[in-house]
Amino acid sequence: MVEQFVGNWKLTASENFDDYMRAIGVGFAIRQMGNMAKPNLVFSVDDAGLISMKSQSTFKTTETKFRLNEEFDETTADDRKTKTIFTLENGKLVQKQTWDGKTTTLEREIRDGKLTAKCVMGDVVAVRTYEKEA
After folding, report:
1. Is the model's pLDDT at 1 over the cut of 80?
2. Would you say the C-alpha torsion 118, 61, 67, 47 has a positive or negative sign?
3. Quick check: 73 pLDDT over 80?
4. For the whole prediction, is pTM greater than 0.90?
5. Are 51 and 7 within 8 A, CB to CB?
6. More confident residue, 65 or 60
7. Beta carbons of 47 and 55 less than 8 angstroms apart
8. Residue 59 carries which DSSP code?
9. What phi and psi, each to the nearest 5 degrees, are found at residue 17?
10. Cβ(80)–Cβ(97) under 8 Å?
11. Helix, strand, coil % (nearest 5) of the chain?
């Protein structure tokens, strides 16, 4: 089911991302760079079922490798140290990050051929939309 995410995705729209970054504790300077960055997301799966999610931009490139339903230690692009788990729920790839008593979720799903990432921290919601590159 993760196969639907495999490929290269280009960011085409971003709503409320600055408020989301502020809600998770990202400082002003990093938020400015984060708002300017237009990352590509690259998903792949190897023969052993290890999933790779790479975010590439002129600002920063990060890669997260994971297996579904297995918690791991993640250092995020904004340098938070989190306990992270990915699950597949109703066709959505759900990433849950926990750190310092806080929790955020990022729900990625394919709708109308586009990948949407809904980023939730408390009552703050951001939506980022990506289109698949040929």
Report:
1. no
2. positive
3. yes
4. yes
5. no
6. 65
7. no
8. S
9. -70, -35
10. yes
11. 15, 55, 30
